[in-house]
Request: fold
Amino acid sequence: MLEPVDAAIGAGIIDSTTPNSSAYHHRRGLWHGYVLDNDGRQRPDPQLVQRPYTREEAVLLLLDAMLAVYRDLPDMATDTIRELADGRDGRALPVDSIMSADGNGPDDAVNLWVTETGSDRENRLRVISALLALREAVLA
Amino acid sequence: MTAAVTQLLAELAAAMPTVRTPFTTADRAERVYEAYIFAQVVASAAECGALISYENGSEAQVKDLLLRGAPGALHVRDRGFTHALLQFGNARPIEMHVRVKVQGKSFASESDILLLDTKTARESRDKRKLPAAVGCLLSIECKYYLVPLPRDEAIHYLGVRSNLSAKMQSLFVTNSFSAPANQCLGGEPWPYEFGVLPGTRFQQYVRAHIRQIVKRFIVTFDLSHRT
Reply:
């Protein structure tokens, strides 16, 4: 799951820059009696610029990926189970369980989505809290 | 600073062996993300006054959902995969399927979430052929990435999209963001949303897109429904 993160760090980041856009941030007005028209006729043209990740950005990308694995995805699964079981004030049939198949064949495994136990959640929260503290330390 | 980080790394190393996470492969993450978007369509439909139930391929009501793990044909009933049924007033019911193939102009392609009216779905089941995109309401492409969204994903989506009927709406949804993907998608007429995760404003935008598309379908059947 984290392999693409290494690849992305190796490939670098692509940012957008907009040459000539600054002229548009200057408001029209008078300068020594002359009318200023900074709009001119140039059209801003956003461009993509590739650069390497800084060490800090690379560490943050890895930490965010780990937070996705240990916090975002499990929370998303829990929220989805809860939302579909909710019944929406009688508008939706409450769902008893969710299963996802590994494939469509008769022999492909079926995975039952289970809500985590209290101790599982506590253990996960310890990992999340360490990851968040590390993130703060990187930003400090 | 170094001592503090070393301490935090030690805490992390001690905590990690106690945690089990099923999300060690990208495939598992994609399945959860698709189900999350499926739940967003259900929520959006409920907000718009629909009655929602779930069925298997034989149109029998179910309460245990079985979602596809690979692209399949909605007319294949062997495994009993589930679809949602959204009923708005007197409009023809809408079916929502996960990971089914749609017949485009030149080739068949996968739709992560497909909304189509029951007439088109029944024709597909009865004739045992893929539904034509022209008879479908909406296809949602769901992409979950831990890194900035690769430009290739956006290019691939637009290639597939160009093969589908312009009458079928589509929506590209991802948790991620990238400037190159934004550049690709921004020049096209099809809506797309980055950063779609629980509790974000982007989630609300996705629900609003779905509402608009469903609303235009309902008005062709029921003029008094206040979607």
The beta strands of chain A are 13-17, 29-31, 34-36, 47-51, 97-101, 110-112.
